[in-house]
Amino acid sequence: MPKQLKISPVQGLQGEVSLPGDKSISHRAIMLSSLASGESILHNFLQSEDCIATANCFREMGIQIKFEGDKAFVVGKGLQGLFRPSKTLDVGNSGTTMRLLSGMLAGQKFESQITGDSSIQKRPMKRIIAPLSLMGAKIEGIQGAKNEIFPPLKITGTKLSGIEYNLKVASAQVKSAILLAGLYAGGQTTIIEPIQTRDHTERMFGFFGINLTRFNREISIEAPNDFVGREIFVPGDISSAAYFIVSALIVPNSNITIKNIGTNPTRTGFLQVLKKMGAQIEIADEEVLSGEPRATIKIRKQIVATQNLVPSAGLKGIEIGGEIIPNIIDEIPILAVLATQAEGITIIKDAVELRVKESDRIKTTVSELKKMGADISEKEDGMVIHGPTKLKGAKIQSYGDHRIAMSTAIAGLVAESETIIEEAACIETSFPGFEARIQQLITNSLYI
């Protein structure tokens, strides 16, 4: 039977919470450490199902990877050191692994096949195949409607050539796939972004000593001869922190401190949105380590009463769209939860990319929050939420999507009765220990 997660309403959340490593950075750290020469040590590596899938793919290609506590030890064999895998590479539920690994595999000297679970096999891949094909890549997949291509993919490694490419979609995954292919391409590879997306790949290239230049939205690299292993300190994942930040903003009498959270400017659009909604958030202890900025985040919130007697988080509804959307794409489901407790109307637009995530996150966010009594409606590229609304407990379907499961769990903390989330095991793909951390904050509040 799929795991259920049961959440009851609470009167407060108190304490300090440490979060596992950033998922995006953990993926890239494994990949580049595997392509480097010599050992890399990754501290605070996220041992989620998605990141373990990335590690297992490289193990299949001859890379030694072991885990001790929250550390990963990777013995890289250099850019030309990978072996042909003896079986199909399986990315599980990780779209990041599927897309980024495809770019890297395109430049190898061997043929490979790559697949994933039923959700991954519905994810569109033409967006990476098109630019990689211009570089000379040979990638085949399952033909779908409207000339779309889906996994499993067969990749015949070949010699690649650098290109100049204007990204059609603002996507860090597509950009990163091209950059990883660029490590094996002759000449210069240049990418022009329509909107700046998260830059973890570029920062990690720089940290490993790979020559990369950026001018405005234009990024260029030339294939290096080689690069060596490094010691990498992975910050906590701000996308994971988002659930605890929102919980502190909507649960009465909460006081939460979150340390060592990544504050990369291409990922902090979530904090910018919260400030526009009126949230009071303290950021302290800022530093840069392993090329990535990080800080401590503190939230102390008292809930205020409103004229219609529905408790309010003291926040106001706003319009969210445009250039900030790629920066907050993973946080939109939890932002929708927050909007149900804000005064007025929140409009989320320009987010059609949500329809091709682990689930159609526009449809699933709207359908599940409606079950809880939210005044929320679906639009083609987003959603409209009226607040504040008193939520009620409900039986929630996660659709196998970790972000839907975690977002509705946070909503359950302020619902009138118990919330039951079906298929909650999907949370392990990105955030092992999620439930335990919530319970610890609840337990702490009982002794205040």
TrEMBL record:
Protein name: 3-phosphoshikimate 1-carboxyvinyltransferase
Subcellular location: Cytoplasm
Family annotation (NCBIfam families): aroA (TIGR01356)
GO BP annotations listed: amino acid biosynthetic process; aromatic amino acid family biosynthetic process; chorismate biosynthetic process
Pathway where it operates: Metabolic intermediate biosynthesis; chorismate biosynthesis; chorismate from D-erythrose 4-phosphate and phosphoenolpyruvate: step 6/7
Top-tier EC class: transferase
Domain (Enolpyruvate transferase) ranges: 9-436
Chief location of this protein within or outside the cell: cytoplasm
InterPro entries: Enolpyruvate_Tfrase_dom, Enolpyruvate_Tfrase_sf, EPSP_synthase, EPSP_synthase_CS, RNA3'P_cycl/enolpyr_Trfase_a/b
HAMAP family: EPSP_synth (MF_00210)
